[in-house]
Specification:
Blueprint lengths: L3 H8 L5 H10 L4 E5 L6 H11 L10 E4 L3 H14 L5 E4 L5 H11 L3 E4 L1 H9 L10 E4 L2 H19 L5 E6 L6 H6 L4 E2 L2 E2 L3 E4 L4 H5 L2 E7 L6 H10 L5 E4 L3 H13 L4 E4 L5 H12 L5 E4 L14 E4 L6 H8 L9 E7 L13 E2 L14 E6 L9 H10 L8 E6 L4 E6 L3 H8 L11 E3 L3
Parallel strand pairs: 1-6, 1-9, 2-4, 2-5, 3-4, 5-6, 10-15, 10-16, 11-13, 11-14, 12-13, 14-15
Antiparallel strand pairs: 7-8, 17-19, 17-20, 18-19
Helix pairs in contact: 2-3, 6-7
Amino acid sequence: MIDTNEIMQRLGYVPNEMQCEMMARGAQSEGLVLLSPTGSGKTLAYLLPLLQGLDLMQQGIQAIVVVPTRELAVQAEEMLGAMKVGVKAMSVYGGRPAMDEHRKMREVRPQVIFGTPGRLLDHLSKENILPHGVKTLVIDEYDKCLEMGFRQEVGRLMQEMAGAVRMWMTSATRMSDFDEFVSGQRVATGSRKRQFAIVDHLGEDSAVTNRIEVKYVPSPEKDKLTTMLKLVSALQGQQAILFVAHRESAERVGDALKREGFASVVYHGGMEQEHRERALYKLRNQSVNIMVATDIAARGLDIPEVRHIIHYHLPMDEATFTHRSGRTARWDASGYAYLIVGPQEQLPEYVGEVAEMNVDDVSIRPSMPEMVTLYIGRGKKEKLSKMDVLGFLCKKGKLTNSDVGRIDVAAHYSLVAVKRECVKPLLRQVAGEKIKGMKTIIEVSGR
């Protein structure tokens, strides 16, 4: 039996009321809809009861979690891995060959799969995933899945998994046509229609909102770049996500930050998957201070170190404001949200009365982060592990464990965070050295 208390101690969390209710009701309910504010810990809320329904001695896929984005799939898989309960899991999503994923499935033999709707259906159609063994189906952020045009795909997945003992859905907002959507699916349990109980904690939205201090920053110019640069200077190197409306704006704002010497990355749907993953890695390992992003980053991303959210372009509606701002104040932490308001703009009514923050007298001055990301041109396909990377850096590079941060090993490359002051001497020490007998490139990651 998996010990939930031991998992929470390992993660360093105390379960909140919503998570306790999901644990109590999850195993007994054939259908559950969890409604809870952004930042309240919904991923952990469904993972804990999901684990209770697994048979660790049984091979094969027992649970499938449907998510709207590849980042959410990877993030949920990482959280399950951090629980260290011995469950075999993997994520599947578009942007990489399905054949490679199938090969990994045969190697890993996962018991839990996290995936985007289209890629899951692809594997089901090829019989790489067999639905008959699936006991639990979770549709995470179901409103976002349907919003992003996955309505048909999610409906088909619900039909394919109609035999699942448990079917759960999560959302940070109420969907007006949920009943209509569910009633249109053949999600029968035997001859009975599956009943969905509601676990509604959206009334606690104010608890999350109260942990976010909102300010508006007046920009004297329609082009807000100078005001933005002064604002991020005022944050003195604390991590921030800066939201813009368009991909082109993300690139433009990102270029402006780089010209001024700020450690920043850009994140939007037009980027290649690998570059998006590297951008998130750098924010998570604290080798950049600022991520400029479109609203693709407004859902699902959970980076507890982010204290500040900047609305460079004003949110299109209250829901967007809530989801963007919810990237800070995760769990019980506090955070800040700033709206940059141009001379021809008005503060949205739904924001209410908020304090002004004037940055006219702030000098534009970048603060450099503690860590730097290094790129190593070898990965899992070359049998390289995190311990191999750490051992190499300590033995050949003369580093200590405390000099090295997060290590991620991908298929054909690895990324590692190293303290900034160690980078130059480290690169001199390892020049020409082999890692596990292999020559490779070791350099500061350019992306």
